[in-house]
TrEMBL record:
Protein name: Nicotinate phosphoribosyltransferase
An MF annotation (GO) of this entry: nicotinate phosphoribosyltransferase activity
Domain Nicotinate phosphoribosyltransferase N-terminal, first and last residues per copy: 9-131
Zinc-finger recorded as keyword: no
Domain Nicotinate/nicotinamide phosphoribosyltransferase: 154-316
Biological process terms in GO annotation: NAD+ biosynthetic process via the salvage pathway
Lineage, top ranks: Bacteria, Bacillati, Chloroflexota, Thermoflexia, Thermoflexales
Domain called Nicotinate phosphoribosyltransferase C-terminal: residue spans: 382-437
Top-level lineage group: Bacteria
Enzyme Commission code(s) on record: 6.3.4.21
Post-translational modification comment from the UniProt entry: Transiently phosphorylated on a His residue during the reaction cycle. Phosphorylation strongly increases the affinity for substrates and increases the rate of nicotinate D-ribonucleotide production. Dephosphorylation regenerates the low-affinity form of the enzyme, leading to product release.
Length: 452
């Protein structure tokens, strides 16, 4: 895992070369940078903001320790007086952000940082890295939860995530949006997430007989026995599991469930359910895993598969259908002067901002207005909150359980069409009069912003 003292070097070289040039030429004024996603992927009707806690911890601990400075000096790129300046550098800025678990859309700031430009510039890479991964995964996981329609979903992604840190963040973000548990033991320790697991096919194959393996596991874990039944013949595995399940019940114990990990999950789950019910074990749950994502879950649930819970791994843990977001961190103001990138297709919106959310008479989300921060939009709920001032947190980090509840409430207010897995409509986000007027004074063509 990344050592805390190395975190400051999680940056692109040009952040540091720009910083030295800023310093050398006295460009050290207050800057505001905005972090947002330019446009949503085709199969995403919403995004779930995540990763803020890691950003704030990084900014709290923002410093260049001697070991980092020694490495930078060894590159021969940086002047000694600039390195001495970095040795004393701390983050002294402000952060406005939407709380984790908030639903956001294209062009809406997830967070904005206002600080001396060198501080805000050096932070860019780490900020994007943390918020990008976690927002992308939280969104993918939320789609899995929505597809399951109330059935349980568990994180099995660790072994194929892109590194240990990614595995931890996948467990955290999937739990934030409604997964019930994770197989990741370290995530259980770090984040307090319930941990769960069954067995591998190797356990079954290590015993002379499949039924013997089931009995051994049940004897070792009589309160948490879940059998993997597809190592050889799935239906025969179900019959053997049922026999052991009846033996457990005779001893005052019970078989919690069986897991299917391959084959035609719809047909097999129906047959396995029949076998268990005929054996007098209607309480035994069926867990399915193996290449699942929101699309396969939706199909299984829609077909009435008698599956009680889904173990979701690789395809969620790497956001297989859309493994990146067009996330940007752009300068929007410097020393009180609004700034705007004008590049075709990548034009940004100027000035520090606020997002106002409007709801209909039934409490469902209706539209957002993207405004300048100083504007007040009557009837709208502001989404960005000031969470750090002068480099200090204004309140403790919310508990993961609180963020989980926040997301549950927010997702319940999103109209169903925007939750569609395919061809979801674009949620309405419009510019306030003040923001639109300011943008127009900076001469970017309207079509560059995707406006009609």
């Amino acid at each position: 895992m990344l050592r805390p003292e190395d975190r400051i070097l999680v940056t692109d070289l040009y952040e540091l070369t720009m910083a030295q040039a800023y310093w050398a030429h006295g460009v050290t004024g207050q800057a505001t940078f905005s972090l947002f996603v330019r446009d949503l992927p085709p199969e995403r009707g919403f995004l779930v903001a995540a990763g803020l806690e890691d950003v704030l911890r990084f900014l709290e601990d923002f410093r260049f320790p001697p070991e980092a400075l020694a490495y930078l000096e060894s590159t021969g790129i940086f002047a000694r007086p600039f390195l001495d300046y970095l040795a004393e550098l701390r983050f002294t800025g402000d952060v406005w952000a939407v709380p984790e678990g908030t639903l956001v859309f294209a062009q809406e700031p997830i967070l904005e940082i206002t600080a001396p430009i060198i501080q805000a510039q050096i932070a860019e890479t780490y900020v994007i890295n943390q918020v990008h991964l976690q927002t992308m995964i939280a969104t993918k996981a939320a789609r899995c939860v929505a597809a399951a329609r109330g059935r349980g979903v568990v994180d099995f992604a660790l072994r194929r995530t892109h590194g240990v840190d990614a595995g931890l963040k996948v467990a955290r973000c999937s739990y934030l949006v409604g997964f019930q548990a994770t197989s990741n033991v370290l995530a259980g320790k770090v984040y307090g997430i319930p941990i769960t697991g069954t067995m591998a096919h190797s356990f079954i194959m290590a015993f002379p007989e499949e039924e013997e393996a089931f009995r051994a596991f049940a004897e070792t874990f009589p309160e948490r026995a879940i059998f993997l039944i597809d190592t050889y013949d799935t239906l025969e595995g179900a019959r053997r599991a049922a026999r052991v399940g009846r033996e457990l019940r005779e001893r005052g114990r019970r078989l919690l469930g069986v897991r299917l990990d391959s084959g035609d999950l719809l047909a097999l789950s129906r047959e396995v359910r029949r076998i268990l019910d005929e054996a007098g074990l209607p309480e035994v749950r069926i867990l399915a895993s193996g290449g699942l994502d929101e699309y396969r879950i939706e199909a299984l649930v829609g077909a009435g598969a008698p599956i009680d819970a889904f173990g979701v791994g690789t395809r969620m843990g790497v956001s297989e259908d859309w493994p990146w977001l067009d996330m940007a961190y752009k300068l929007v103001a410097y020393e009180g002067r609004p700034a705007r990138k004008l590049s075709p297709g990548k034009a940004s919106l100027p000035g520090p901002k606020q997002v106002f959310r409007f709801y209909d008479g039934e409490g469902k989300m209706k539209e957002d207005i993207l405004a300048l921060r100083e504007e007040r939009i009557e009837g709208g709920t502001p989404l960005l909150e000031k969470v750090m001032e002068g480099g200090r947190l204004l309140r403790p980090h919310p508990a993961l359980a609180e963020l989980r509840e926040r997301f549950r409430e927010a997702f319940g207010r999103l109209p169903e069409p925007y939750k569609a897995l395919r061809e979801a409509p674009r949620y309405p986000v419009r510019l306030s009069p003040g923001l639109e007027a300011l943008a127009n004074t900076l001469t970017a063509p309207r079509e560059a912003l995707g406006e009609s």
